[in-house]
User: Which sequence fits this backbone?
């Protein structure tokens, strides 16, 4: 894990009228890190992420993602990152292969590249005949793994995952995280938001957002020591109580 | 460019794999063209008329036969006296009366002139003009036939009277028609999304797991809208009278009551749609497309039903709006009372009961 | 007044959602149905609350048959479905009033029962339900389900999508409710919540894996389980999976939970193997399994 910072945020802020959704957050993410962006629903995680991936304009502060400015170089950011959201990742009424081809095209890959990657992906995930089934007919776990792979199709430097593992069984969830580990091991930086506190433990470092502010930022181990508890869930509970 | 094409290709997949969009693309235009093509016509066909022949002589018989023979008119009845004319129009089954004066042929030969009166029900001014014109031209051609080659010996000038709407104001047709459409659409649309909304939001589950019966839910959803729609109806009538100067020849209270009845019929239809459909979007589409077009085309609002092909005429009978327009025009323009309108009123009541009963039956007491 | 489920099966369009499920909830029990999305929990709840009819099997709730006597059940159970099902454009008080009225009671009549839950949101009683936070919606939905003093309470994933603080408070409320003699059937995908129930049924892909009290289930775990640590998680996982005697290898936070195929084995041997794979800071220690370990072991078969 190199020491270079791929995400740098300084006082990043987003206001909607009188309401401040993201309140001057400052942090850095190193290359190859698995960075967990935690917080309750409504704490501002998704809003913050949207600014980092270049689809929302910040109201204040600065940030650099993959070396590009979030205010002025949003297009470059989009080209250099991968994104997977829980609400949507793949088209249900397209087959697996068609989805891969489509996204490959969107990311600007050549036909040859798309073909190669498609074959490789189908092989790695062991899809076989499923490649020609409509995505809508696949179980949730498969959809998630597929969505992640598609987000990585163009070998981006950073992959942003927004609540990627809702609802699946414990084994599938871990298989998904193993895919994340592998990607991180190979140098991709992973920025993941989740409200599953136990998944926080899989991250190298985590930040916890409460009401738009970052109230804690460290490795899971150090946070547990700091709050004298044994799980990240309890860290969150203590933190919430302290803030009240 | 490649990205763009990739994106376009994906859009094609979506379109062809979604049955609904295919239906809209191909199914609906075909249905609409057929419907529009047959229903929209300013021509008249087989219009029912009555003849009062006070002469019963050669000429009048010949003219009568000629009119009867034409495809435009069907002589439904022969009246026996002028007193019967008003009654005939009130009854509403004939759209025009041709009144031949006494001793028509005699006058024709002796004085060179014969009088024919054409009285037309002008509650539908467009059709009325057409009817009058066609009858006049038939009479004209008869006249020319008789006068062939010879200097015009005699002339027949039909005297035209537009009954109920002497100035042929289109607003007289317009206001009752618009009122019908607005009441039907608003009522049906509102209730059609009512149950589907509960399904979509998930509150339907809670309603089902409760002591509420299907009857209570269905009727409970109709009742609030009755009051609101009544206000709507009152506003329209008020505007019709004040701004458009529509006369109300008949009983205003009767009009109010019949309006309430029609509102309930429409609300019930909306609820029926609501029980059968899963999403609010579909409910709205069906109310809008599925109800608006038939109501506008087949209710007799603009286009005369009698001019449409037989199948469409049959279908028009199940459009509640058709019956209400007859009622509304009858009360507003002709001043008739329940005595003449009991059949239509009964039909509306029957439809309402049918819709509500069917809704209760179709209201799913379980989730699948 | 309990729940009896006998050989219930239900399929949708060729997909079997619930496969031959049987279990029993004793009166006054706090019973948990534990499993991920798609396990069949919601389908089962809908069958028991009479919203769906099973393809096969019987069930009784509070002594009433779910098919024949469905009306009785609908009059006497409290149901909190997965989406909380509140009227977004009505206020807290209006929602509660509505549910009280259609059950033929009033807020005052059973206030004691809901007081514990309701007084936390009562200060906001004129706020519309649509504008409430997840935790508040949860409390309102629970109040609405309780207001008519049901004998049996069905809570379908009441803590999904809600912050950890509210989750914790919710379960504390449930424990207090249990003392008022209400039978409670809760479904949840959170394994840590399972430990708070009297008994649990682990459910996966429409089948029951195991039924017992949380403590007993954990005791039944057939193998010894080890916490293994190394500074490179990915490297550790790969190495362990390559180990010929590995039975299960699962990441669990900063450790990996490892079970071995053999009955007894020398952890030192494993340590040496791992260090030979160039892993740093290797440590191996015996640990206690939790419900998630049991679930994964059972669902592997």
Assistant:
């Amino acid at each position: 894990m190199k020491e270079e910072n791929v995400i740098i945020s300084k006082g990043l802020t987003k206001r909607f009228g009188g309401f401040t959704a993201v309140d001057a957050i400052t942090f850095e993410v190193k290359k190859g890190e698995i960075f967990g962006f935690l917080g309750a629903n409504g704490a501002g995680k998704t809003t913050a992420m949207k600014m980092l991936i270049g689809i929302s304009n910040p109201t204040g502060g600065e940030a650099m993602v993959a070396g590009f400015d979030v205010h002025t170089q949003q297009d470059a950011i989009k080209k250099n990152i991968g994104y997977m959201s829980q609400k949507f990742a793949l088209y249900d009424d397209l087959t697996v292969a068609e989805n891969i081809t489509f996204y490959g095209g969107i990311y600007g890959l050549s036909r040859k590249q798309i073909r190669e990657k498609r074959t490789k992906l189908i092989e790695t995930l062991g899809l076989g005949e499923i490649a020609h089934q409509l995505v809508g007919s696949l179980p949730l776990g498969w959809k998630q793994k597929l969505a992640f792979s598609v987000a990585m199709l163009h070998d981006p430097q950073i992959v942003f995952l927004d609540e990627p593992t809702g609802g699946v069984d414990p084994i599938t969830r871990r298989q998904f995280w193993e895919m994340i580990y592998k990607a991180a091991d190979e140098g991709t930086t992973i920025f993941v938001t989740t409200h599953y506190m136990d998944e926080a433990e899989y991250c190298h470092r985590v930040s916890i957002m409460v009401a738009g502010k970052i109230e804690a930022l460290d490795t899971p181990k150090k946070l547990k020591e700091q709050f004298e508890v044994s799980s990240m869930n309890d860290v969150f509970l203590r933190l919430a109580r302290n803030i009240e | 460019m490649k990205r763009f094409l990739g994106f376009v290709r994906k859009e094609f997949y979506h379109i062809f794999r979604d049955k609904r969009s295919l239906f809209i693309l191909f199914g609906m235009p075909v249905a609409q063209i057929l419907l529009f093509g047959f229903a929209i016509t300013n021509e008249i066909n087989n219009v029912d008329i009555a003849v009062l022949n006070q002469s019963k002589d050669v000429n009048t018989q010949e003219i009568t036969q000629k009119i009867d023979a034409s495809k435009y008119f069907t002589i439904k009845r022969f009246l026996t006296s002028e007193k019967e004319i008003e009654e005939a129009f009130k009854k509403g089954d004939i759209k025009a009366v041709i009144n031949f004066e006494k001793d028509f042929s005699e006058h024709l030969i002796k004085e060179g002139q014969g009088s024919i009166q054409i009285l037309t029900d002008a509650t539908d001014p467009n059709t009325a003009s057409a009817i009058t014109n066609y009858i006049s031209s038939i009479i004209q051609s008869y006249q020319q036939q008789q006068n062939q080659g010879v200097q015009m010996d005699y002339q027949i000038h039909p005297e035209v009277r537009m009954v109920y709407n002497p100035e042929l104001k289109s607003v007289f047709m317009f206001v009752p028609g618009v009122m019908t459409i607005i009441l039907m659409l608003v009522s049906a649309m509102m209730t059609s999304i009512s149950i589907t909304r509960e399904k979509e939001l998930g509150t339907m589950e809670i309603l089902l797991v409760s002591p509420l019966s299907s009857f209570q839910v269905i009727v409970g959803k109709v009742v609030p809208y009755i009051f609101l729609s009544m206000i709507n109806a009152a506003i329209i009538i008020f505007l019709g009278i004040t701004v458009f100067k529509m006369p109300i020849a008949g009983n205003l209270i009767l009009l109010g009551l019949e309006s309430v009845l029609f509102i309930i019929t429409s609300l019930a239809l909306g609820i029926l749609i609501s029980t059968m459909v899963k999403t609010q979007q579909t409910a709205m589409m069906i109310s809008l497309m599925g109800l608006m077009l038939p109501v506008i085309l087949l209710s007799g609002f603009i286009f005369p039903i009698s001019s449409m092909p037989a199948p469409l005429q049959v279908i028009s009978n199940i459009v509640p709006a058709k019956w209400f327009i007859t009622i509304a025009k009858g009360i507003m323009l002709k001043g008739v009372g329940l005595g003449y309108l009991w059949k239509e009123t009964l039909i509306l009541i029957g439809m309402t009961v049918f819709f509500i009963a069917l809704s209760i039956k179709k209201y799913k007491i379980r989730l699948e | 007044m309990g729940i009896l489920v006998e050989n219930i099966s239900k399929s949708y369009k060729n997909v079997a959602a619930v496969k031959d499920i049987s279990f029993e909830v004793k009166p006054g029990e706090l019973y948990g149905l534990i499993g991920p999305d798609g396990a069949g929990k919601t389908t089962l709840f809908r069958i028991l609350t009479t919203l769906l009819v099973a393809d096969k099997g019987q069930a009784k709730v509070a002594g009433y048959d779910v098919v024949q006597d469905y009306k009785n059940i609908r009059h006497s159970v409290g149901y909190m479905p997965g989406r909380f099902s509140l009227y977004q454009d009505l206020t807290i008080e209006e929602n509660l009033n509505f549910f009280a009225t259609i059950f033929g009671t009033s807020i005052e009549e059973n206030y004691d029962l809901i007081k514990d839950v309701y007084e936390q949101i009562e200060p906001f009683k004129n706020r519309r339900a649509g504008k409430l936070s997840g935790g508040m919606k949860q409390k309102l939905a629970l109040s609405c389900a309780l207001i008519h003093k049901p004998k049996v309470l069905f809570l379908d994933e009441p803590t999904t999508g809600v912050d950890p603080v509210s989750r914790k408070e919710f379960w504390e409320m449930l424990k207090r409710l249990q003392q008022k003699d209400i039978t409670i059937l809760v479904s949840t995908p959170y394994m840590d919540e399972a430990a708070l129930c009297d008994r649990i049924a682990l459910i996966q892909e429409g089948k029951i894996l195991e039924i017992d009290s949380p403590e007993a289930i954990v005791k039944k775990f057939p193998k010894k389980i080890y916490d293994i640590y190394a500074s490179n998680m990915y490297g550790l996982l790969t190495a362990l999976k390559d180990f010929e005697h590995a039975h299960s290898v699962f990441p669990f936070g900063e450790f990996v939970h490892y079970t071995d195929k053999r009955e007894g084995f020398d952890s030192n041997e494993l340590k040496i193997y791992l260090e030979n794979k160039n892993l740093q800071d290797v440590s191996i220690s015996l640990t206690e399994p939790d419900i998630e370990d049991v679930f994964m072991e059972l669902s592997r078969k």
